[in-house]
Amino acid sequence: MSISPNDFKEKLLAGEHLPEGLVVEGSLYLYGCTSFTHLPEGLVVKGYLSLSNCTSLTHLPEGLVVKGSLNLSNCTSLTHLPEGLVVKGYLSLNNCTSLTHLPEGLVVKGSLNLYGGTSLTHLPSGLVGEGYLNLSNCTSLTHLPSGLVVEGYLNLSNCTSLTHLPAGLVVMEKIYCGPSLIDKIPREDLPLYLNFNFEDHIHEYINHKLQGVTNGHE
């Protein structure tokens, strides 16, 4: 069954029952709608889906298909995403502070923004980012999955619980991080990190530490 974006929004906010398998014929903007907690199962949105600042939303429906981008920024009650979620554009999860993990099988055709995901502890194995991957201020993130491929840049700024990077990490553009991450890496592993595409000042910092090890200063 197809429905227009305006009719869908009107029925949702009025508290009417929405059947499973609805197809929204276009983009759907529900920014700042704090009165609803969930969407109907099997929902298909043929354009962009904005749910940013929907602070009562706890989860997304099984079978959700978004054929554009999906914006969930500041959905502070969101705890998880459905298994096998496919987003044909970018996925923004900025400041989703209750989100602890991402589902296996997640496919994002654009960039993935997880800035401020302070409860996120890990990423799913096999994750491929077809744009940039922003993990800055994910302060509970302890590790990255082996085989992670990022086709844009990777931002690890202020990931204070991260202690190392996986050997098979592939990042097409720059890796952004602070010296504090490098300080946590065992000395014997430091030469491996020269192969990563860090910013120039981080490469200089690694070389400085290696020089210090060589000269017996550390």
Brief overview, please?
By secondary structure, the protein is an alpha/beta fold.
Describe the structure.
This protein has 218 residues and is an alpha/beta fold. It has 4 helices and 17 strands. It has helices spanning 5-13, 179-183, 190-193, 200-214; strands spanning 2-3, 23-24, 28-29, 44-45, 49-50, 65-66, 70-71, 86-87, 91-92, 107-108, 112-113, 128-129, 133-134, 149-150, 154-155, 170-171, 175-176. The strands form 3 sheets. Strands 3-5-7-9-11-13-15-17 form an 8-stranded parallel β-sheet. The protein has a 6-stranded parallel β-sheet with strand order 1-2-4-6-8-10. It has a 3-stranded parallel β-sheet with strand order 12-14-16, with no helix packed on it. The longest helix has 15 residues, at 200-214.
